[in-house]
Amino acid sequence: QVQLVESGGGLVQAGDSLRLSCAASTRTFNNYAMGWFRQAPGKEREFVASINWRGTSTYYTDSVKGRFTISRDYAKTTLYLQMNSLKPEDTAVYYCAAGVDVTHPGYWGQGTQVTVSS
After folding, report:
1. Quick check: 21 and 76 in contact, CB under 8 A?
2. pLDDT tens for residues 47-69?
3. Burial tier of 89 (Cβ tally within 10 Å: 0-12, 13-18, 19+)
């Protein structure tokens, strides 16, 4: 079964760091673009960051540029999101996604909660 499983969320204070991981169940995901999305309470899910299948291009939403870094480990079939200088407005459920076109992912993880207190 094709799966994406996120981990690494938690409760932190403003200014702290967290690293999210997304473990893919098969090496098939090494051929997909992958990304992170988030959904805050009462808001629509939004794009956070993506990385192409080769790992050569990354994209970030403006609000996280310079603070978040997306990366992938092909040997471990794992996607990461290093989040530094966290702010309360980063509080959301973070979802991992994968697909030929990551803006319209075909695969989603179950989400991991990130809560940043002020």
Report:
1. no
2. 999 999 999 999 999 999 999 99
3. exposed
